[in-house]
């Protein structure tokens, strides 16, 4: 059973426990997109992957590059900034709060928000987890697969591969700040192939909240 909502931004009403943002930044960048999505794209934090001004994950101000361009190419994202429409795709961060000067979270700060990310992931209950960058990939592999101890987090090697998780198919992507044309094409081709396949067979035991 899927969660039904017409709201694209923060459809589950999550309220992270602290505000340490700069004055001109959103306090947090919660999940955004289709809450009934089969594809869940997971990044690190707003200071790394964007959205501190708009509140939309992966909004770096440039729709012609990075994750947003990839999603537009795949047909998941339509419309213009700052409120795009997402179909069959949900975006979120392992650490949704913004921090001063876009600094990375500390290990304690990641741990403090882990339950919020976990709640969002389980509520979406997607078939495909697309982890973007090393931190998000480590988090997804540690929490939702049995493969973390067997996988070397060399993102150039892991980029656009397929890893089986506990009821999920995980597709790691290198940090989009380092993509060139070949890495973009590899991500596009892998996700297109999965999208055109019978990917729902990847889903095992349901992981709904509660």
From TrEMBL:
Record's keyword terms, sorted: 4Fe-4S, DNA damage, DNA repair, Hydrolase, Iron, Iron-sulfur, Metal-binding
Top-level taxon in the UniProt lineage: Archaea
Name this protein carries in UniProt: Uracil-DNA glycosylase-like domain-containing protein
Positions of the UniProt region annotated as Disordered: 1-61
Matching InterPro entries: UDG_Type-4/5, Uracil-DNA_glycosylase-like, Uracil-DNA_glycosylase-like_sf
Uracil-DNA glycosylase-like domain mapped to chain residues: 30-177
SUPFAM superfamilies assigned to the protein according to its UniProt record, in alphabetical order: Uracil-DNA glycosylase-like (SSF52141)
Pfam families: UDG
Keyword Amino-acid biosynthesis: no
MF annotations from Gene Ontology: 4 iron, 4 sulfur cluster binding; deaminated base DNA N-glycosylase activity; metal ion binding
Protein's UniProt keywords contain Nucleotide-binding: no
Single biological process term from Gene Ontology: DNA repair
